[in-house]
């Protein structure tokens, strides 16, 4: 962790601990008042529940902020109250005396907590550092070395990868590669497995090289071999991917994109629900210091509204909260269709397995028991959020291109349009379609056709802004949603993309060919609902095809007659 952020982490943590200490007298006063209300006769549900909540919070926060004596005393008192609440809810005179003793102990501890301020032993850490290591090394460097003992293959694949923006240097001798890596470190190496030096010479060379480098070199292995031993050798040499030959340039480019990713690793969004704002802020701080984005909510009733804006990968939830418990909130969320699969993890000092199990029954996904070390919190949250992203991605993305699928793009169009209507912003929808794609399939085969679609998907994804939404609408048709631009500006962007795509040289069976696409654009506010936008963009695309293809046309209401005339004359 850089010194500056480490300082601010410690500083923020110090402030949260201070806030906990500041609130301690108030909490204990409340506990005293509740104890005074309690008598040893009759059932007293409300004060019992409130008192239990206070001890429970003191137990959890005490542990989180490293005040072990507070945690221990509150824990005992909480346990006593738990037994009463689970039993006949009548409190005996000796028990009442015990609870008073605990409050007194806590009051005495309150006077000493200041000196405990320095006893925080939670380690500082930064998981981002590892995740960013390769990205940092490669941020300005798209140089790739490709090593294969077949010089023609190496030359050919290198040239194809140039089309995807990589500077690829081919090598066919292991010694030459070794010297090159030690002289100038590339962003990644693509390495064959079998060489004249041996059946595993590729991974052996990379493993040796890694021992001489500060950080292992990101490596993709390629081979005709598909046996377990070859794959194992590749993994042991820190291989990040393994591709069977024949290698497709587009797929290799995708892997290189992932390996040499220039952007930040995707940040997970975590919603923290805890009625104790200090504890919630503490978790937020821990998660943020490891590169996640968090949002804190103290009132459970606000959670559904906050989730509408904050696209959470996971909800971290307190178990005991006044008015609405964690399990009740989990149940509410599970009854909202969009949140059926949203991971919910409780964080609580509840250690009773039976009660944990009951809380999980309502559809939550896990339980983290307080006190939780920051490093463990980050690891647990990271793992679950990552899994959620993977599952969600399978549901919403097209498997060939990795772009949003048809249903998702329709959904996203609705959401983007509603947001632009609210904020009075412009929106453009472009429908684009590969020209004469049938003949690509007929001439070069379906697999080559797939490569063209993948290449177009990749061009759209990498060349458009992060805020633009790109999807595969179906077959060889793609949809792009751009906000904050008028139709002319969007046409300028799509035209530039169209020209770069036309310049890509595809190779199939030794034959080179090029592809183009046509596009239709429709803009909000001229078209003001999703189906009108789609229909108009589609009609403009149709006109573009009839106008000779390889062009982008903008839809206007006055064109409607022209479009229908074309439709009828075709
Ligand atoms: N390889 C491949 N082909 C696909 C896929 N989806 C649709 N196609 C093919 O795309 C072709 C589309 O052909 P047409 O609709 O006749 O249009 P076109 O040949 O592109 O001609 P224009 O659109 O008029 O320029 C059909 O042959 C489909 O089989 C896919 O996922 N992969």
From TrEMBL:
Give the keywords, sorted. Phosphoprotein, Two-component regulatory system
In this UniProt entry, the residues modified to 4-aspartylphosphate are 192, 318
**Per its UniProt entry, what is the enzyme's top EC class, as one word?**
transferase
Q: Which GO terms describe its biological process?
A: cell adhesion involved in single-species biofilm formation; negative regulation of bacterial-type flagellum-dependent cell motility; phosphorelay signal transduction system
Provide the GO MF annotations for this entry. diguanylate cyclase activity; protein kinase activity
Q: Where are the transmembrane segments?
A: none
List the residue ranges forming a coiled coil, or say none: none
The protein's matches in InterPro entries, at most eight in alphabetical order, are given as:
CheY-like_superfamily, Diguanylate_Cyclase, GGDEF_dom, HPT_dom_sf, Nucleotide_cyclase, Rev_trsase/Diguanyl_cyclase, Sig_transdc_His_kin_Hpt_dom, Sig_transdc_resp-reg_receiver
Q: Where is the Response regulatory domain?
A: 143-260, 269-385
Q: What is this protein called?
A: diguanylate cyclase
Q: Supply the source organism for this entry.
A: Allochromatium warmingii (Chromatium warmingii)
């Amino acid at each position: 962790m850089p010194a500056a952020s480490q300082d601010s982490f410690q500083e923020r943590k110090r402030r949260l601990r201070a806030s906990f200490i500041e609130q301690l007298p108030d909490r204990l006063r409340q506990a005293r008042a509740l104890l005074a209300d309690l008598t040893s006769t009759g059932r007293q549900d409300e004060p019992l529940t409130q008192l239990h909540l206070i001890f429970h919070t003191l137990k959890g926060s005490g542990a989180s902020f490293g005040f072990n004596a507070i945690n221990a005393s509150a824990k005992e008192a909480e346990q006593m109250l738990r037994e009463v609440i689970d039993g006949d809810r009548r409190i005996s005179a000796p028990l009442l005396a015990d609870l008073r003793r605990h409050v007194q102990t806590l009051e005495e501890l309150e006077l000493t907590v200041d000196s405990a301020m320095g006893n925080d032993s939670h380690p500082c850490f930064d998981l981002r550092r590892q995740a960013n290591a390769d990205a940092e090394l490669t941020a300005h460097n798209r140089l790739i070395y490709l090593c294969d003992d077949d010089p023609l293959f190496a030359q050919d694949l290198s040239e194809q990868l140039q089309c995807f923006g990589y500077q690829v240097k081919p090598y066919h001798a292991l010694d030459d590669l070794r010297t090159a890596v030690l002289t100038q470190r590339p962003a990644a190496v693509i390495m064959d497995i079998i060489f004249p030096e041996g059946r595993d010479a590729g991974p052996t060379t990379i493993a040796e090289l890694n021992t001489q480098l500060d950080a292992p070199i990101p490596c993709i292995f390629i081979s005709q071999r598909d046996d377990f031993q070859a794959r194992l050798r590749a993994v042991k040499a820190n291989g990040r991917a393994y591709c069977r030959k024949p290698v497709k340039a587009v797929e290799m480019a995708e892997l290189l994109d992932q390996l040499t990713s220039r952007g930040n690793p995707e940040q997970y969004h975590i919603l923290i629900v805890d009625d104790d704002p200090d504890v919630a802020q503490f978790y937020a701080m821990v998660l943020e210091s490891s590169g996640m984005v968090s949002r804190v909510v103290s009132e459970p009733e606000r959670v559904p509204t906050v989730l509408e804006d904050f696209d959470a990968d996971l909800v971290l939830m307190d178990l005991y909260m006044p008015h609405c418990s964690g399990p009740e909130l989990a149940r509410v969320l599970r009854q909202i269709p969009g949140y059926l699969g949203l991971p919910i993890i409780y964080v609580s000092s509840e250690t009773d397995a039976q009660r944990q199990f009951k809380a999980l029954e309502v559809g939550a996904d896990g339980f983290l028991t307080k006190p939780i070390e920051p490093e463990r919190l980050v690891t647990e949250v990271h793992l679950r959020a990552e899994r959620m992203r993977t599952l969600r991605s399978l549901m919403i993305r097209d498997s060939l291109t990795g772009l949003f699928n048809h249903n998702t793009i329709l959904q996203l169009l609705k959401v983007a349009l509603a947001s632009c209507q609210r904020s009075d912003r412009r929106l453009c929808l472009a429908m684009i379609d590969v020209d004469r794609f049938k003949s690509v399939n007929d001439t070069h085969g379906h697999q080559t056709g797939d490569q063209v679609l993948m290449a177009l998907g990749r061009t759209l994804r990498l060349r458009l802004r992060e805020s633009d939404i790109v999807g595969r609408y179906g077959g060889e048709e793609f949809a792009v949603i751009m906000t904050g631009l008028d139709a002319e500006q969007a046409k300028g962007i799509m035209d530039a993309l169209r020209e770069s795509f036309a310049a890509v040289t595809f190779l199939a069976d030794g034959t080179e060919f090029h592809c183009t696409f046509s596009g239709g654009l429709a803009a909000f506010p001229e078209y003001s609902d999703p189906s009108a936008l789609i229909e108009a963009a589609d009609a403009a695309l149709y006109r573009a095809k009839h106008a000779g293809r390889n062009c982008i046309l903008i839809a206007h209401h006055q064109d409607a007659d022209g479009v229908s005339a074309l439709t009828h004359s075709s």
